[in-house]
């Protein structure tokens, strides 16, 4: 049996760090703002899945998948905005050109769009949005 001590270096986190940030944020908003349940949701719009191939990509595009769409939406009108869209990135993550283009399109239509890199930042984004700021 190995007992982890403070001297042992911790393993680097692998996997999908953006998904971990997003999961923390979803848990927080559902617990802290239950009025958003059913109105804050993930937009399943990924083509970079292990099972993705040309046929799957073609089928998903025919079903309406759009490159660059944000990760989550909060479908509550607040202030001047009809809804809020949130794109999750790590501290060093960058928006793709498609994501930047979609951000331009959606903000030109009167929707809020925010890039989020942490749970702390997400709390600020949501609280400000819900206050109508």
Note poorly predicted spans: 1-13
- Count of helix runs: 4
N- and C-termini, Cα separation: 53 Å
CATH topology label: Trna Endonuclease, Chain: A, domain 1
Rg on CA atoms, Å:
17 Å
Shape: globular
Q: Based on the structure given, which CATH architecture is correct?
A: 3-Layer(aba) Sandwich
Count of the separate structural domains:
1
Q: What is the N-to-C succession of helices and strands?
A: HEHEEHEH
Query: According to CATH, what is the class?
Result: Alpha Beta
Major sheet size, sense and barrel closure: 4 strands, mixed
SS-based structural class?
A: alpha+beta
Q: What average pLDDT do the residues reach?
A: 86
The neighbouring-strand order within the major sheet is 1-2-3-4
User: What percent of the residues sit in helical stretches (DSSP H or I)?
Assistant: 25-40%
| Proportion in β-strands | 5-15%
Count of extended strands: 4
């Amino acid at each position: 049996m190995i007992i982890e001590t403070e001297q042992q270096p911790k393993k680097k986190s692998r996997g999908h760090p953006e998904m971990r940030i997003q999961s923390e944020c979803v848990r927080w908003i559902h617990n802290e703002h239950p009025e958003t349940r059913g109105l804050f949701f993930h937009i399943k719009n990924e083509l970079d899945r292990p099972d993705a191939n040309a046929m799957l990509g073609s089928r998903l595009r025919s079903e309406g998948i759009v490159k660059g769409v944000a990760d989550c939406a909060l479908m509550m009108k607040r202030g001047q905005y009809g809804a809020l869209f949130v794109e999750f990135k790590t501290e060093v993550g960058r928006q793709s050109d498609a994501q930047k283009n979609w951000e331009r399109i959606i903000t030109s239509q009167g929707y809020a769009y925010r890039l989020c890199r942490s749970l702390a930042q997400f709390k600020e984004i949501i609280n400000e949005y819900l206050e109508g700021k």
